[in-house]
Amino acid sequence: MFEIDALRLLVAVAETGSFTKAAARLNYTQSAVSRRIATLEQQAGGPLFERLPRGVRLNSAGRTLHRHAMEVLDRLSRAERELAVLHAGHGGLLHVGAFATANISLVPTALRALRNARPDVEVVAVEGPTDTLMERLADGTLDLAVVSDYPYGLPSADGVTTTVLCEDELLVALPRGHRLAGTEPVDLRELRDEAWLQNAYGDRPTMLADACARAGFIPRKIIRIAEWTGKFGYAAAGLGVAVVPSLAAWAVPGELVLRRLTDPALRRTVHVALPAAPLPAALTLRDLLSDTLIAREPHPLPDR
């Protein structure tokens, strides 16, 4: 309803007590100030100033609008400062998304490095599936996301670019007493009679389903478990086996062992995804993610 320039003019007139002095401060003509104030008073539903022999002063309605104008202008000023800092790469908020297993070690390690290198950057972290993260990048609610092509492939999103971070081997988690726990690598065909723990739904083919088809079988049973802790619990109880990315190896409990699979195609690609015009802090985090992978110790195999 009220224009920002009109609110600034209201504040200037209130501070100077004069249309003429406010006009000089804001580089307006005195007649332009009178017209703008008259328009503002019309929008406000009545006079905002008492006209005095020498100058003007706010009336009760003017004082009310002046209080709100000061709050609005202060917030805008702070927003301008924060945006300037943000786009200069000197701080501000950074909204980061990642899929679940990237949050076990990769992303937290990189964010710790970012905190040490750039304590002025405040990170807002969210977790979600890759397709959701890509959508949030496209609509501007995320500044960077770590995504992968597992289980359905990497989706595209308008204005979003992706860069490969690493190839992540997919392993099988078995209870320590499993007949194949001491075998490495494990031929997928030897697991044809197992129940498989996974959370992928729908009719879209998954990487695991394709691998099983190449091995000449269809899993006899799929148990849908969304969270990794639940998958580990079921696997440890001998109720099924699970495909576990090497990025998640450090979170696997001691009741399970991880074994490689003979199918070389059972691996996923991890990407960092950015909007078309990434923030400087997002580019810094992208580089730190790469540095984290270079410095990362190998996953705990074959002892696991």
Annotate the secondary structure layout.
Layout: H1 4-16, H2 19-26, H3 30-44, E1 49-52, E2 55-58, H4 60-87, E3 92-98, H5 106-117, E4 121-127, H6 130-138, E5 144-148, E6 160-175, E7 195-198, H7 207-214, E8 221-224, H8 228-236, E9 241-245, E10 256-259, E11 267-275, H9 280-295
Parallel strand pairs: 3-4, 3-5, 7-8, 7-9
Antiparallel strand pairs: 1-2, 5-11, 6-9, 6-10, 6-11
Helix pairs in contact: 1-2, 1-3, 1-4, 2-3, 5-9
Overview of the molecule:
It contains nine helices and eleven strands. The N and C termini lie far apart (65 Å). 33% of the residues are buried. The strands form two sheets. Strands 3, 4, 5, 6, 7, 8, 9, 10 and 11 form a nine-stranded mixed β-sheet that branches. It has a two-stranded antiparallel sheet with strand order 1-2. It has helices spanning 4-16, 19-26, 30-44, 60-87, 106-117, 130-138, 207-214, 228-236, 280-295; strands spanning 49-52, 55-58, 92-98, 121-127, 144-148, 160-175, 195-198, 221-224, 241-245, 256-259, 267-275. It is elongated, with a radius of gyration of 30 Å. By secondary structure, it is an alpha/beta fold. 39% of the residues lie in helices and 23% in strands. Helix 1 (4-16) crosses helix 2, helix 1 (4-16) crosses helix 4 and helix 2 packs across helix 3. Strand 1 (49-52) and strand 2 (55-58) form a beta hairpin.
Task: From the structure above, extract its key features.
11 strands; 9 helices; elongated; two-stranded antiparallel sheet; 304 residues; 23% strand; 39% helix; nine-stranded mixed sheet; alpha/beta
